[in-house]
Amino acid sequence: GAVVVLRGDEAHKEAILGVWEAFIALPTHVRFFLSLAIFAMTYFGAGMFVAAPAKQSEEATAASPSSSSASTIDAKEVFKTPASCDNVVGFDVPSSLPANEKEFFDFMLDKLQEEIIKDTGDHYEMKTEALNWINEMITYNVKGGKMNRGLACVDCFATMIRARENRELTNKERCQAAALGWALEFLQAFFLVADDIMDESVTRRGQPCWYRLPNIHMIAINDSFILETCVYKILKRYFGHEPYYYQLVDLFLETTRQTEYGQLMDLTSQPLDGEKDLNRFTMERYKTIVRYKTAFYSFYLPVAAGMIMAGISQPKAFQQAREILLIMGEYFQVQDDYLDCYGDPSVIGKIGTDIQDNKCCWLVVTALNKANAAQRQVLEANYGIKNKKKEAVIKKLYVEMGIEADFKAYEEESYSEIQRLLANVKDTDKKFKVQFAVLVALK
User: Fold this and answer.
1) Among candidates 388, 381, 379, 378, which has minimal Cα distance to 361?
2) How does residue 47 score in pLDDT terms, banded at 50, 70 and 90?
3) Of 280, 95, 264, 252, whose CA–CA distance to 172 is shortest?
4) Quick check: is 336 catalytic?
5) Is 332 a catalytic residue?
């Protein structure tokens, strides 16, 4: 074909011609894939360049302590990219909002759910049947929980604004804080729907697991993915115009990655196609599972998200919060392991299956560490077998070994360590008031 040579000196012309001649000498399929790669790099590179926030907006974020005073990005400029078909950014602030925070939080879920369903129909060609399915799926899996993570995020942001600016939240900030809290709850629902399938769980929050319903089954896998996409739909609509939007997206993506790594460690704690190996149940492995599978998303994420929204950008503040919150997350999971074994299903909302599922949980790791030869033999013969009588044998053994007393001692040690770290935050860095956010998360 014809070759167009740009104006310039002879050396440049020869270089361009040389590259072109080398290119046309390649096999057709190689030229095709090279052309496709160049096109893709140009297309996506340009889109990322256009979508990136201006440097001035980043500087404004660091200079301004809260979302209300920070300058915002021009949403039309941010989302001027050919890769996106859904560029809905911005939200209506109702003229009147419930004064009670719990009622307001529930109100915001209804608002978010309506927006998600409407946008799904408007931008993704989903018809009534699909929209009704998504709506029912959100209602079943997102509503009805304790909402600790979402409410902790709201409380964290509100507490820090009061401490740093001596004021209450505006209605716009209340809507944004609640939306951020519900983004956490949607992320939680995504994890739980998928986790219930992998664990073959029976109940969740006092009702059958979503995948257990007769018309659902493995469609629940795709439903869990849809729940995850709702997280980023909420973030885009409520924070796409904020200079800290990309910090929130990055935090949610990293937390999801951490949680999935923790789930991998949990699922592979025993050979999938071999004999049971309780030697793999070590305290080191257990703590890694807990940190990544639970602590990051259940404790660090709500506080870190609130801190970002409040304008905190100093790495030291996040480092201190992370250290304390990961300890709290570990304690929470140890407590959850204890309740899985001894909790009343009507109270905790699920039937414990850790013993029969051969889970690497705190109770069995502690028992293995202190077992004598005879006790070890009982553990080997009965743990991790789907049999109610063998489960009862393990529970009886835990009582004989004093595992409950070990749990109480662990509780006291964890509480003392958290208080020590909180005191250090208070003494060394009063400015950021991180201790208030952490105390809120303890609710």
Assistant:
1) 379
2) very low
3) 95
4) yes
5) yes
H helices of 166-244, in order, are 171-199, 219-239
Sign (positive or negative) of CA dihedral 318, 302, 61, 171: negative
Q: Which helix (H) or strand (E) holds 207?
A: strand 207-208
- Give the span between the Cα atoms of 35 and 158, in whole angstroms: 52
pTM of the model: 0.77
Under the banding of pLDDT at 50, 70 and 90, the label for residue 208 is: very high
Locate 202 and state its tokens.
Answer: 């029976």
Which residue in 174, 204, 233, 433 is the catalytic one? 204
Q: Is 50 exceeded by the pLDDT of residue 31?
A: yes
Catalytic residue of the set 155, 266, 340, 354: 266
Question: Is there a catalytic annotation at residue 354?
Answer: no
Annotated catalytic, 287? no
* Closest to 371 measured CA to CA, from 252, 305, 247, 281: 281
Question: Of the residues 336, 340, 350, 354, which is catalytic?
Answer: 336
Given the structure tokens 């001596």, which residue do they identify? 166
* Pure H helices in 295-402: 301-309, 315-342, 345-348, 362-370, 373-382, 388-401
Residues 6+ apart with CB under 8 A from 380: 276, 278
CA-to-CA separations, 369 to 237, 316, 331, 373, 405, in angstroms, rounded: 50, 36, 19, 11, 15
Per this entry, what is the length of the chain? 443
Which one is catalytic: 86, 199, 406, 429?
Answer: 199
Q: Which of 149, 237, 293, 350 is catalytic?
A: 293
Asked about 407 being catalytic, the answer comes back as no
* 359 is an active site residue: no
Q: Is 146 among the residues known to form the active site?
A: yes
Quick one: average pLDDT of 337-357? Answer: 84
